[in-house]
Write a structure and sequence with these properties.
- By secondary structure, the protein is of the alpha/beta class.
- It folds into three domains: 155 residues, Alpha-D-Glucose-1,6-Bisphosphate, subunit A, domain 3 (Alpha-D-Glucose-1,6-Bisphosphate, Chain A, domain 3); 209 residues, 3-Layer(aba) Sandwich (Alpha-D-Glucose-1,6-Bisphosphate, Chain A, domain 3), CATH 3.40.120; 89 residues, Alpha-D-phosphohexomutase, C-terminal domain (TATA-Binding Protein, 2-Layer Sandwich).
- It is globular, with a radius of gyration of 22 Å.
């Protein structure tokens, strides 16, 4: 068994501690071994984010793949994850690697893997990659070709993925009406890979795009981490209020997640954003198709599914579950609680750039402000309120919490004063309440965290439900 473990979305570690060049090369060799075991050969796309040394880690991964006989398409600059994902099928590659820790703290780096569709690899595939990683004492198992040699021999190609991705965008959305709408849009790219993309896409018209946190700064000032939720988005929202922006478009560190703020500079939580995106596709664009959602995201989607007579498929948390389900059901949209949304006609992978463009298009097509659009959504499904608590943990705390949760019975159990009618254990522990609300306790697959989430129609009960959830866990 490898000491390197793949979580919800690949491997992440602390730079200089477990995330080292030696371990990075082991991971790349494991991915190469996995591809060869699957009978896949050809090319692999490799990209990276703006974190410390990420470009050098990406070059090391490219060297290992080239040493294993694969042709490598290495991005010429820090590139959004959705652009790397799209580049895999666009280049006819058998897979992709992205050197990124996404929304993790600045001390971390990561190793995301994608299949030939650009989507996340399913859990059984991640298990096989882990098993194919050579041990730390078996350095001879790692094959490598120096970067300069790989480039000279045509085994490594440095390429610009932007033109092909922008051409793909033109098939998904007509941005000209957004350009000419005269909106004032504040974009917070959280010091990450999304910097410059929305501004470039919307340039040349009456709409003004104001960027904040757009430089490369691997310590991520004004936020704990580049995750598009409060308090990390507070500085960007304050800037929007000062500039009197019509809305706030936010992308996380690698631009696969979407955050959003309204015309008052108030955060629109990611469950409401998912509801708005589904409403946009179903009501405004008149499209139909299945909705794929993780168990940790909004029940508004179940209500929309009934209203529009379309299926809603629930999965475990992470795009390693969402992406295969989207492909299987030819889904209209897929998404999760963390702000990641994917769309039919595109790669089955989160795309924060497309999600933000769709939200802007929703505003332009309806002529309404974000708060007014939320009112329209709630008129259909009722008002929903959400919050989440993250608690750092260790193996002992995790084991004790699991024992407690396994023993919880629903008979007579209430959360925030609402009776619990069912306990679901698809991925974590989800307690369904009589009024349609829910509480989920889940152990993060990428960080040492216990996450406690709730969504309810009872706004006054949100804090109490979360407190009752922490009591269930014993924290």
């Amino acid at each position: 068994m490898s000491d390197i473990k793949f979580g919800t979305d690949g491997w992440r570690g602390r730079i200089g501690d477990d995330y080292t060049f030696a371990n990075l090369r082991r991971c790349a060799q494991g991915f190469a071994n996995y591809l060869k075991e699957q009978g896949k050969n050809g090319s692999v796309v490799v990209g990276y984010d703006r974190r410390f040394m990420a470009d050098h880690f990406a070059a090391a991964a490219a060297e290992v793949l080239a040493g294993n006989g694969f042709r490598v398409h290495l991005t010429d600059d820090a590139t959004p994850t959705p652009v790397i994902s799209f580049s895999a099928p666009n280049k006819g590659a058998v897979g992709a690697i992205n050197i990124t820790a996404s929304h993790n703290p600045p001390e971390d780096c990561g190793f995301k893997v994608r299949d030939e569709s650009g989507g996340a690899i399913a859990p059984d595939g991640l298990t096989r990659i882990e098993a194919a990683i050579p041990s730390a004492t078996n350095a001879r198992a790692i094959k490598s070709m120096p970067l300069a040699e790989g480039i000279a021999k045509g085994k490594i190609e440095i390429f610009d993925p932007k033109p092909a991705y922008l051409a793909q965008l033109a098939h998904l959305i007509d941005v000209q009406p957004i350009k000419e709408a005269g909106l004032k849009v504040l974009v917070d790219s959280m010091w990450g890979n999304g910097a410059g993309w929305l501004k470039g896409i919307l340039a040349g018209g009456k709409t003004e795009v104001i960027e904040v946190h757009a430089d490369r700064n691997p310590i991520f000032p004004e936020m704990k981490r580049p995750e598009p939720i409060p308090p990390n988005v507070d500085a960007g929202l304050a800037a929007a209020r000062r500039r009197k922006a019509d809305c706030v478009c936010i992308t996380d560190g690698d631009a696969d997640r979407c955050g959003f703020g309204d015309e008052h500079g108030q955060f629109v939580d990611q469950l409401r954003v998912y509801g708005l995106l589904a409403y946009y596709l179903l009501e405004v664009r008149g499209e139909r198709g299945a909705i794929v959602k993780t168990i940790s995201t909004t029940s508004m989607l179940d209500k929309l599914g009934k209203l529009y007579n379309i299926p809603v498929i629930n999965t475990g948390v992470g795009f390693k579950f969402v992406a295969p389900a989207m492909v299987e059901h030819d889904a209209l949209i897929g998404g999760e609680e963390s702000g990641g949304y994917a769309f039919r006609g595109h790669v089955p992978e989160r795309d924060g750039i497309v999600a933000n463009l769709y939200l802007l298009d929703l505003m332009v097509r309806t002529g309404k402000k974000p708060s007014e659009l939320l009112a329209d959504l709630f008129a259909k499904v009722g008002a929903h309120y959400y919050d989440r608590v993250d608690i750092r943990t260790n193996n002992e705390m995790k084991a004790a919490a699991k024992d407690r949760l396994d023993a919880v019975a629903t008979d007579g159990l209430t959360l925030g004063g609402h009776p619990v009618v069912e306990k679901v254990t698809i991925d974590g522990y989800k307690f369904m309440m009589e009024d349609g609300g829910w509480l989920l306790v889940r152990f993060s697959g990428t960080e040492p965290l216990i996450r406690i989430y709730t969504e309810t129609t009872d706004q006054a009960a949100v804090k109490t439900i979360l407190a009752d959830g922490q009591a269930l866990v014993g924290l």
